[in-house]
Amino acid sequence: MSISLSQGAVRILETASPREKVRLTKTLYQSWQSGEITAIGSTPPPNRPARPDQPVLCSPRDMPRRTKSGTKGRAIFIHAIAHIELNAIDLAWDMVARFGAPDADKKFYDDWIKVALDEATHFQMLSKRLQTLGFTYGDFPAHDGLWEAAIKTSHSLQARLAMVPMTLEARGLDTTGQAIHKLRHNGDNETADILQQIAREEIPHVAAGVYWFKKICHKQGQYAPDVYHFFIRSLYKGRLKQPFNQTAREQAKLTAEYYLPVSD
Question: pTM for the complete prediction?
Fold first, then answer.
């Protein structure tokens, strides 16, 4: 008897091993795509995903300073991005299990399952790059900020979409270009190429957030930018930081009317 989609998502969330989490993500994606799994189910997700013993999680202020020069400096930087991507795998599956429903639009599942697959691929690429530098995921401390945002928004799909894909992931669109430039300047084209692929594939992730956020707002008769501003002011610390990658944001349909009124 085949498991339901939500059962599969929760199994991934409850898997601590990053390697196994990636493997299960690819398997569940393939089972969904092939039609082997069709039932959605209603298995509730855990409040927090399982995590390996390493890395040690600490507050953002206690994190080592990131640098993109020197082997260890680059490894610390890559490790930080890998940690974000590992969290992003779980965020996508949490979206499926927490906010999905048996009668929901199939596109909702298609979108977030594809996001999970992309994030798993990104984590795998970064992990391999770490290994070529003589390190592994878990060798450096990491912070829990991304999952703290998930906990804050566990009550509302609108809030989750506003805070995670439309704000935190959109921030990645703004900052990755500069990181790529610095890596190439320091001669690390291998890592720069990985980040280039990640930057390209994150645009549809932000776009999925915008699409479903706007759809909910339209259904409730709300003006989407106003609702987004409400969530930023109530859930986000401070204002959004400039500069913005307006080209990438436009490609994701995240237009200036969303972010400029709540920026510095």
Answer: 0.94
